[in-house]
Design goal:
Order of helices and strands: HHHHEEHEEHEEHEEEEHEHHEEHHH
Strand content: 15-25%
Radius of gyration: 20 Å
Number of helices: 13
Number of domains: 3
Strand order of the largest sheet: 2-1-11-5-6
Number of strands: 13
Bound molecules: heme C
C-alpha cells in the first residue's frame, strides 16, 4: 500500500481544525482517527453524514440565493443509493452513499436549471469548477455524502501529493465505470467539500476570462481546455477558483516561465518543483501534448488582455 507514511505531512490541517494545534504526529490513519476521537471530546464519533450537519449548503441562480439547506433537509428531498465509482483521486473503485444530482436540482430550482449554461460548485478549500449543464443531462451525476463500506468519508488524493482530504458535506461523483469519456476526464469534474451550487451563464459570471478580438481556433480550444482542467483552482484576471495563484495579472506566466518549462509544468509539475500540490494534467486526456499547446496559446492570448481584478467591470 502506498502513501500511508505521507499522511504525516497532510493530516495537520484537519487536526488543526478540531483544535489540537501544532501536533506533529507520524503514523497510520487509525492513529489519526484515534486522535480525532480524543480531541473532539466525544467517544462516540457520529456518522459522517450527521457530523457535517451544522454546515449549510447554498444553492444560487446567477448570484441570487435560491435555497440554503442542511444535509438533513437535503436528505428529505432525494433518494439515496449506494454507488460504485472509479475514484479518480485514488485510481481505484469505491462505493459511496449518494443522491442523484438531477433529482435534487429539480426539487430545488425546478426544471429551469436545465436552461442554464453551467453549474459552478464552490468547495471549502477554494476549488471552484464550472461544469456545463449539458454534461449533467448526458451523464448521471450524484452527490456522495458518506462512504458505503464503513471507511471514513475521506480520501488520499494521489493527484495532489497524497494529501488526505475530507469529502463532505457533499462530493460530486459520476456513474463513470461504463463511460470512457468520463474516465478520460480524470478528477476534473469531481469537486469534494461542496458547499455552494450555482447555475450560471458563463460569460456573465466570468466577464474577463474570454479571449478578445480575432481569436484563432487553437486559442478557442485552449480556452475550453483551460475551463475544464485549470479554472477550478486558478484565476485569470481575478476570475476563477481560489485554490491556486493568479496566472495572468499583473504578469502572465507566459512572460516569466521559460516556454519549455511551462509545458513541463503542466505535464508533470513535480518534475520542476518538489512536493508541489498542483496535479499534472490528467494522463488520460486524449491528445494531451496538443491540449497543453492549446492551453498555452490561450494563456498567451490572455496576456494581451489583462484586466485589473479590482476594476469593475
Ligand atoms: C487542483 C488544483 C490545480 C489545478 C486543477 C491546476 N493547478 Fe496550477 N497550480 C496549483 C497550485 C496549488 C499551484 C502552486 C503550486 C506551487 O507553487 O508549488 C499551481 C501553480 C501553477 C503555475 C505556476 C504559477 C507560478 O507563478 O508559480 C502554473 C503556470 C499553473 N499552475 C498552471 C496550471 C494550468 C495551465 C492548469 C491546467 C492544465 C493548472 N495549473 C491546473 C493548483 C492547480
Amino acid at each position: 500500500m502506498r502513501c500511508r507514511d505521507t499522511a504525516r505531512n497532510t493530516v495537520l490541517p484537519s487536526i488543526d481544525k478540531i483544535g489540537s494545534n501544532g501536533m506533529k504526529i507520524p503514523g497510520s490513519s487509525y492513529y489519526i482517527l484515534f486522535l480525532l476521537i480524543l480531541s473532539s471530546g466525544n467517544i462516540f464519533l457520529p456518522a459522517p453524514a450527521f457530523s457535517q450537519d451544522g454546515i449549510n449548503i447554498e444553492f444560487k441562480d446567477q448570484g441570487s440565493i435560491v435555497r440554503t439547506l442542511t444535509l438533513t433537509e437535503l436528505s428529505n428531498m432525494a433518494d439515496s443509493i449506494p454507488l460504485k465509482v472509479f475514484e479518480a483521486h485514488e485510481k481505484r473503485e469505491r462505493i459511496y452513499h449518494a443522491y442523484p444530482v438531477r433529482q435534487l436540482l429539480d426539487a430545488i430550482f425546478g426544471k429551469s436549471w436545465e436552461q442554464s449554461e453551467e453549474i459552478v460548485f464552490t468547495s471549502t478549500d477554494g476549488y471552484q469548477p464550472s461544469i456545463p449543464v449539458a454534461r449533467f443531462l448526458s451523464h448521471d451525476a450524484y452527490f456522495a455524502f458518506a462512504s458505503a463500506d464503513g471507511t471514513p468519508f475521506t480520501l488520499i488524493n494521489i493527484l495532489q501529493n497524497d494529501e488526505l482530504v475530507k469529502l463532505g458535506p457533499l462530493y460530486l461523483v459520476w456513474d463513470n465505470l461504463q463511460s470512457k469519456s468520463l474516465l478520460n476526464d480524470g478528477a476534473s469534474g469531481m469537486p469534494y467539500q461542496v458547499i455552494g451550487i450555482e447555475t450560471t451563464i458563463f460569460s456573465i459570471r466570468y466577464p474577463n476570462l474570454s479571449p478578445v478580438g480575432k481569436v484563432s481556433p487553437q486559442v478557442k480550444r485552449g480556452f475550453l481546455h483551460f475551463r475544464k482542467h485549470c479554472l477550478a483552482c486558478h484565476t485569470i484576471n481575478g476570475e476563477g477558483g481560489g485554490k491556486a495563484p493568479e496566472l495572468n495579472y499583473p504578469n502572465s506566466v507566459v512572460e516569466y516561465f521559460k516556454p519549455d518549462y511551462l509545458v513541463r509544468w503542466i505535464e508533470n509539475p513535480t518534475s520542476i518543483r518538489y512536493n508541489t500540490t498542483m496535479p499534472a494534467l490528467a494522463k488520460e486526456t486524449p491528445n494531451r501534448a496538443q491540449v497543453i499547446q492549446e492551453i498555452i496559446a490561450y494563456l498567451k492570448a490572455m496576456s494581451a488582455a489583462k484586466h485589473d481584478p479590482k476594476r469593475i467591470p
